[in-house]
Design brief:
Layout (H helix, E strand, L loop, with lengths): L5 H23 L3 H21 L3 H26 L12 H25 L13 H8 L4 H26 L16
Helix pairs in contact: 1-2, 2-3, 3-6
C-alpha cells in the first residue's frame, strides 16, 4: 500500500481528535441537549474517519442510521420528556474533571504512539473494505445476533422512554394530545 499523504493523515488526525473530544463532551455535559449535540458531532466525526479510510458506503450508512435516526430519536425523546433545567453553575468540580480529561487524553495519545511504534508495518485495508457486499456478509453472518440484540435494545429504550414520559406528565389522550381528567364526555 502506498504511504498516506500528509492531507490524508491530517484529515484522519483531525477527525480522530474531534471524535475523542466530542465523545468526552457527550458523557461529561450535564444538559441532555448538549449531550445530544456532542453525540451528533461524534457521529459526524466518525463519518469523516470513514471517508478518510475510503469506506464511502459505511459513511453513508453512518449518516443515515445514526444522524438520521438515532440522534433524531434521542432529541425527540429529550423534547418529549422535557429538558431538565440547568442548575446554577458549580465550578468547584470543574478543575479536577478537566485535569482528569486532559490526563485521559494524554494517556490515549501515549498509548496510541506506543501501539503505532510496535506495529511492524502498515496494514492495508482488505479488498472490498467498506463495500455493500462486505457489510452485508458481516451483518447477516457472524454479527447477526448482536445486530438483532441491538435493535431489540433500541426498541425497548423507545418503549421505556414513552412509559417514563407518560408517568411524569400524567395520562394524555392519544387522539387530542390533551391531558385527560378521567371523566368521559
Amino acid at each position: 500500500m502506498p504511504p498516506a499523504s500528509i492531507q490524508q493523515l491530517a484529515a484522519f488526525s483531525f477527525f480522530a481528535a474531534l471524535a475523542v473530544v466530542s465523545a468526552l463532551a457527550t458523557v461529561m455535559m450535564r444538559n441532555p441537549i448538549r449531550n445530544a449535540v456532542g453525540l451528533f458531532v461524534h457521529v459526524l466525526s466518525l463519518a469523516g474517519l470513514y471517508v478518510s479510510l475510503s469506506a464511502h458506503f459505511l459513511t453513508a450508512v453512518q449518516l443515515i442510521v445514526y444522524v438520521g435516526a438515532v440522534v433524531v430519536l434521542f432529541v425527540f425523546v429529550i423534547m418529549l420528556l422535557g429538558p431538565a433545567s440547568e442548575a446554577p453553575s458549580d465550578t468547584a468540580g470543574r478543575l479536577p474533571r478537566g485535569i482528569g480529561a486532559a490526563a485521559m487524553i494524554a494517556a490515549g495519545v501515549f498509548l496510541a504512539r506506543v501501539v503505532i511504534d510496535l506495529r511492524p508495518e502498515r496494514v492495508a485495508n482488505p479488498p472490498g473494505f467498506g463495500t455493500i457486499e462486505t457489510v452485508g456478509r458481516e451483518l447477516f453472518g457472524p454479527a447477526m445476533i448482536p445486530f438483532e440484540m441491538a435493535s431489540v435494545l433500541l426498541t425497548a429504550a423507545i418503549v421505556g422512554a414513552f412509559a417514563v414520559a407518560r408517568s411524569h406528565h400524567g395520562k394524555v389522550s392519544m387522539s387530542t394530545g390533551e391531558p385527560s381528567d378521567g371523566s368521559s364526555r
